[in-house]
Predict the structure of Beta-galactosidase.
Amino acid sequence: MWPCGGRRQRRLGAVALLLVVLWLLLRRYYPCLLPVVSEPCENAVLLRFNWSELTPLGLWGRTLGLQTEKSQFLLEGMPFRIFGGSMHYFRVPREYWEDRMLKMRACGLNTLTTYVPWNLHEKERGKFDFSKNLDLRAFLSLAAKNGLWVILRPGPYICSEWDLGGLPSWLLQDPEMQLRTTYKGFTEAVDAYFDRLMSIVVPLQYKKGGPIIAVQVENEYGSYAKDPNYMAYVKMALLNRGIVELLMTSDNKNGLSFGLVEGALATVNFQKLEPGLLKYLDTVQKDQPKMVMEYWTGWFDNWGGPHYVFDADEMVNTVASILKTGASINLYMFHGGTNFGFMNGALEADEYKSDVTSYDYDAVLTEAGDYTSKFFKLRQLFSMVIGQPLPLPPMIESKASYGAILLHQYISLWDVLPALLQPIKSELPVNMENLQLNDSIGQPYGYVLYETVIFGGGHLHTRDHVRDRAQVFVNTMYVGELDYNTVELSIPEGQQGFRQLRLLVENRGRVNYGLALNEQRKGLIGDVFLNKTPLRNFKIYSLEMKPAFMKSLQHVSGWSTVPDYFVGPAFFRGRLWIEQQPQDTFLKLQGWEAGKNWVENTRAVKIPSSTVRAGHCSAPLLSDRHTEVGKDTSNPEMESGK
């Protein structure tokens, strides 16, 4: 027989245990209960929510997913707002993915958005690459591990200031190609790509235990809108391959009503919150939650132009105003990163302008992943909205100054040609995409050298067939440049006999936005005329600058000490000695003109003419002890020691 005091203790213990269980159940199933009003922030009244359990690792019941109920989102039946940030795995070294995700969480974000670039995953038709820095499965799984939901934007077109908006250049081999339409040649290629891509994506959806809560149908189609059946095709291409999560579209205000597709939530993109802009969504879809898919935290830079800067206070006040309306938001970009390789896009409005290698974007984090004032202002704002402590911001990656690098050797392009390259012979000029290379998928990027024989001088005219810039040489003598604005040159007369006319044509990036996508073939896209006679019988050299080519340069004989003065295209190399663990650094190329830079055979920086901005060079590109630093200069004149 137990004493009375023991029974009382057992009852109290049972009650305490029951209360604990009830508390855990409430936290588990009703984490968004009882929102409270926060302190004023820039005169805005914001609601606080506790979403501590609405994370990929914390939410176990997976049946309903992300839904819309009148003006709000529900996640597994509970009120939810998307606080997202864009970061693209293909623009950030894999070694830094987690660091950037932790910084997202520390800023108060709960969702990561990313595009998927078709032209990286299927560089050659039918050959897919989801390895190393393109390991989409690893990237999305890492987002889940770090408590971030994912909105996936698989395209097939992504815009994103990326070459041809992410579409593979080999599509343009078809002279009748109609991109972003239901043209058979395009949809067959999309179907084959989606077959492979969705085999990775489908198992990572929310209802299958993954982090993907929504999938975007195409991208900003309302600004293109050439085929009324196209958006329905893309939607069904997703659904037929197993996509079951919420579908969305994304457009600016002008394109909003033209980019709709039944069954997908429309979202809007902008930087300035015009009066009534969010309410405009009600005119295309009534009684639905409002979502800003792209709130532009900055902007991209064009080649040779100034670095774009968007005021941090204006930005955070606009974000606060958006949140005050109850809308969800995605910060484009949270972290921009780098357009590695030749992947930068371009614009063509009044004139052609290519984008720079850096995708810093004046975003919340810098290109190097460092904090900005925008980060701390947004962190304060989101902390007040969420109403709970945020994770501490991670330490920034250390940087190192390695001093000046002496580029001690060079080799002329003319000396490289016979050692490494076999020309294609053609009576007519052939554009880059239709060169018989790379298992017949053409040349996507880089340079093409066109050589032919002439017997005199005169008037050279391109009839606007150069894409995008050509340096003209007679034998090895530089004559001038041709581009969109300069379409004719005078070729000097020489001694009797034949001479080589050489046009070194640079692809500076395909347009990624607008109505001219089908016209993005590069190189010489038509005849070039000397004294009104079309040039014929070309030797065509592909200078794609692949890693294998850059590596093979090291073994070519003919490297010489850099002279005080040199005229012509050439490759230069030097060596950077690193005694300890490599750290992030920057390349400052003051005094150089146009060219490209490689670090250990990886193109890290494009050098725009008339700029002295330092290019970010991340530690993963640098190896212990020594790193080979190379540069090709497409500028015809170089003075060493600048």
Notes: The two ends are 97 Å apart (CA to CA).
